[in-house]
Amino acid sequence: MTKEQEQLYQEPDELRRLLEKVLTGRKFKLDCGHHFTGGTFLGNDITIRNGKHFKITCSQCGY
């Protein structure tokens, strides 16, 4: 990877900030059928499979 290509990538904190802002307090049904609530200790952890289409499952079903 060239320096120019590497500079296109943002830091993990930016992704974390974006996810917290968008997901906190929202509730979703996942592809595995389980549920996720953003920003709460009672919500499942999620696994996001990157590809042509995102596949989002809970961490228990993601392995």
Structure description:
This protein is an alpha+beta fold. It has one domain. 25% of the residues lie in helices and 22% in strands. It has helices at residues 3-6, 12-23; strands spanning 27-29, 35-37, 46-49, 55-58. β1 and β2 (35-37) form a beta hairpin.
Helix content: 25-40%
Q: Please give the alpha-carbon distance between the first and last residues.
A: 30 Å
Counting helices, strands and paired strands, the structural category is alpha+beta
- What is the residue-mean pLDDT, rounded to a whole number? 91
Rough outline? globular
Number of self-contained structural domains? 1
DSSP helical segment count: 2
Uncertain runs are none
Largest sheet: 2 strands, antiparallel
Order of helices and strands: HHEEEE
Radius of gyration in whole Å, from Cα? 14 Å
Strand order of the largest sheet: 1-2
Number of strands: 4
Strand content: 15-25%
Fill in the keyword field for this structure.
63 residues; alpha+beta; two-stranded antiparallel sheet; two-stranded antiparallel ribbon; globular
